[in-house]
Write the structure tokens for this entry.
Amino acid sequence: MTSMVGAAVIRKEDPNLLTGRGTYVDNLRLPGMLHMAFVRSAEAHARIRGIEVGAAAALPRVHGVFTARDLPELPPIPTVVPGLERPSLARDRVRFVGEPVAVVVAEDRYVAADAVARVTVDYEPLPPVPDLETALAEGAPLLFPEHGSNVYAEIPPAGDAEAALAAAPRRARLRLVNQRCAPAPMEPFGVVADWGPKTLTVWASCQSAHFVRGQLSKLLAVPYGGIRVIAPDVGGGFGAKQSWYPEYVVAAVLSRRLGRPIKATETRSENLVAMTHGRAQVQEVEVGFDDSGRILALRVMVTQDAGAYPGDAVGLPMLTMIMSAGCYRIPTVVTGCRAVGTTTTPVGAYRGAGRPEAAYLIERVIDLVSDETGVDPIEVRRRNFLPADAFPHTTHLGFVYDSGDYGKALRRLLEMIDYEGLRREQAARREDPTRPLMGIGFSTFVEMGGVGPSAMMEGLGMLGGWESARARVNPDGTVTLAVGTSPHGQGHETAFAQIAADALSLPLDRIEVVHGDTEVVQEGIGTFGSRSIAVGGEAVRRASLRAREKATRVAAHLLEAAPEDVELEDGRFFVRGSPDRGIGWEEVANKAYRPTQLGDLEPGIEVAAFYEPGLTTCPSGAHCCVVGVDRETGRVTIERYVGVDDCGTVINPLTARGQVMGGVAQGIAQALYEEVSYGESGQPLTSTLAEYLVPSAAEMPRFELEHVETPTPANSLGAKGLGESGATAAPQAVVNAVIDALSHLGVRELQMPLTPERVWRAIQAAANGGVA
Amino acid sequence: MIPAPFEYARPRTVEEAVSLLVHHGEGAKLLAGGHSLLPLMKLRVAAPSLLVDIGRLVDLRYVRDAGDHVAVGALVRHHDLETSPLLEREAPLLRYAAGFVGDPQVRHRGTIGGSLAHADPAADLPGVVVALEATMVVYGPRGERLIPARDFFRSTFESALAPDEVLVEVRVPKVGGRRWAFQKFNRRSIDWAIVGVAAVEADGGASVALVNMGPIPLRALETEAALRRGASQAEAAALADRGTEPSSDLNASAEYRRHLARVLVRRALEQVRR
């Protein structure tokens, strides 16, 4: 049988999803179910003087209106800074527009919305802190006066780069803004909680049913056995559905109070203010280099806008620090970071979570060095690359890059793009005022995949960095895999079946994958950090191999041979040397459940594997973006987008392509379109998709995508993970291209998103002798 | 994203629709394709107490040759405009511009009447009918009246329609032989125009309308006058933002809009007058 790993198999998930037969949380209709809706803060920063709920509670078909005082059993949302916890319903203070201050329960969500509109909250406004500048100013208004500062957490630079920077022949600075983005998954967040006499059952649009159960158990003091969490079909998460939201405990507590199932579904406008935002970093960067473009020293200070509460955002700049040096060997790297509170939506993980910010930083530095020295950007990259024999490579903060060959992906990329031809065209277009300017941008990036091991994850408050799989061979010969990862669009049912098919020598359609239900699946960690294939896939392989081992022993008994003499090929067990004397999988599987024919063997074939990775993996790649820039309007058009990814072994080229395309699309979105904006008063200005510009397929270029494979030693598949690579690769490829298009005018820096007006202003400023 | 409560009625004739409007007063609102009104209702920016759904009045869904003009029923969907051979022949600017409204879903539901009556200064079709000097036919309790496009738009989201009147037809002069141009500048294909330009060749110059350069679609009067004087396209286009009052928003400052208007008008004129 040819290997299924590496085969372009179409997704097993799609027939259900494409025919509208998927089941999302909001599709659930339980008998007696009620709907809840939050009254959300209209103020960015205020004291709550009073909440008037009478008019809302008096509406027909409203079952109750509750504030924090009415629900003393409601636990707060834990944060990473002790003492600075986030109440699940605001008590006496609100810290961002959209923060829940009361909750309505009604017969349907329409009545609930009407009731929400009738609740009046008496606010005593406090000065807003809409941005980092305000938050860090002398005498700034404080979100937590008892904390004494808006700086929630800080890691000062370890060491001093000044000597190395001063010793470098040349030095330059950049101030980079990685703007705030909204994950905006197709399906907003939602939960249904049904707290019966025996069990609390929660359906949630989340990235890990097991994580949600663990948190609920802790927060509500209910043993694991009393909680079941189900993640049904989930329409995208992008990291934000790994965050904790008030709905989890509010819905559960209300269900217990009212004795009815409670559903909460965000509207899109709510999603844009309530779901965690991503990125939101400012980076002060200084680089020392020589005339040949060799980088000698790098100093990075990352300031992370954490939003209103010190949640998941606090860890993000640490990941940025770790990955600051990118693909390069830089003798001196010194990094520091701080996470700062503002009166805005809390920030959390968003596709790449800290690593795209690092890739953007170092790839902008590379192009700055190229511009300053006149050395071609490709050559600057080559001169500074970690060589292929440098692995495992330990970075300045002790993180280990598992493997890589950065030159290989770049060589393939250059073959694909015809670099000299592009440069000739660029020169010709600069001379022809009737044609748009042209720019060529590169991004040779490295990030983290296969997120684990446990030591790292425990530090982030997780149970661990391992993953689990259980393989059950059914009496009809089919195999059911229960996996601890929790897909939300990735196609695990297909990819894991491919891995198991190879290990078990079974066709794909004999393997089913189940996930996202704590009652059906053994303990698991979840899907984030590009870990599902690299960690979960290895668990699947190991569980499958253990099932195969047991099946082989059953076959050996039936064939009256020693297990070590029994082989499995194309779904048939036979004694080595006598391929005609064999039995098929179906028969072995069936007999495995008939003790009368098993001799001393224990009946059944069901085995689990928990896999703890030794290393995080480091997916990498080389991407190129070619843009046209309208000289008169500043509009940027992507003319080509070419990417070569190295995620080690590719399990399924089709789904891998989908992952890269989706990630690159989000990266292009960040580079050109998306930015969450707040007004001076802290009011969100982008609370619908008419203002928050998620691009559509019409804005995307044709993608030219390939892979090279440098397998990781971290797992036996050699797979590194790929889910976040596109989003990590693309922003700087686009921005570098636009700056390249304008570099002859003297433009050296542009801030994302590159709106037509921003680009136009940069061109204007350059034409007027200054730089924007 | 969830509208306030409202009543719903589906009249079978225009007369019935008008009588519902008359009886219900200001709280009533006409619903056609729903692609402008419903989003506003979901944001609770609009909260009509009665929706009068005229979406199924098939009698208002026609594109007819009416001699010196093309008669377009108010309930003609953007997609119908986009694919009309008659418009392609007699008013290709309208056919072409209709293809830039929203996305395919919007174009299959949204109607020309709804788009015009909504009077959104950032919408495409109001600018187009102003450039084409079309005439609106409205029907109400006092009977029928004709309103030239230039008088139809009063302010942002405000037309010359009385609360008890229905826009029933748009009369588009036949301009099949003349050159035309439509320029729409936006960031995503589905968006409203940041600035748009609709232009048609006219005797001694061009009729040039600007989208989103003020509270209503505006004619670039100084540009038009300069062309009549024999100015070059570039000279005329440089005057395109005179007399406009563009707003500033997240997509563009007023200054940038003025710049875009000048650039887009020049590009449009280059297409209109070679």
About this structure: Residues 58-173 of chain B form a domain with the Uridine Diphospho-n-acetylenolpyruvylglucosamine Reductase; domain 3 fold (CATH 3.30.465.10). The interface with chain A takes residues 1-2, 4-5, 39, 43-44, 103, 185, 187-191, 194, 250-253, 256, 259-260, 263 of chain B (CB under 8 Å).
